[in-house]
Design goal:
This protein folds into two domains: about 55 residues, no CATH class; about 70 residues, no CATH class. By secondary structure, the chain is mainly alpha-helical. Strands 1-2-3 form a three-stranded antiparallel beta sheet, covered by helices on one side.
Amino acid sequence: MPGKRRFGRVRELPSGRWQARYKGSDGIDRPAPHTFDSKTSAERWLTLTEAEIIQGDWIDPDAGRVLFGKYASDWIEERQQRGGGFAFGPPKSDAGHRTVTIPSVITPDLASHIVTYAEPGDDGLVFTSSGGGPLRRSNFCRRVWHPALRAAGLPPIHFHDLRHTGTR
C-alpha cells in the first residue's frame, strides 16, 4: 500500500482523471483549478503548490473573485474607527504599559495644555491635530516637529526618540 502524502491529497475520479486537493495557507481545503490526466501530474502540481505556500508566493484563488466595488466598500467600512483609519486599542504587549516621569518644571504647561487642547474623558487624546482629531505623523512632522527643531537650533531627531527623555 502506497504511503500517505505529506501535503495534499490525490484521488482518481470516475472519469479516469485525477483530482488534487490541498489546504491553502488560509487553512481552507481547496481543489486544484483543474483535473489531471495522470496521478503523477496531480502530485507534481501539489508539490509546486506546496513550494509556493512555503515561499510565500501562493495567491488565494478566490482573491480575484471579489469585485473591486465590494472590496473598496468593505475596506472603507472597516477603516471607520475614529480619525478615519486610526485604530485605538490596548497596547500590543505589557511593555506598552509604563510609568512616565514628567519633570515638575513642565507640569503647569502640561496641565494648561490638557485643559485647552486635549479631548475630554479618560480615553481622550492628550495631543490632537488643529482640527481636534488624532495626529498624523507625516503632517505633524512636516508642520510642527521639523520647524520646531530648526527654530530651537537642534539636530534632526525622530519624535519617537523623546520616549526616553522622561525615564529614570
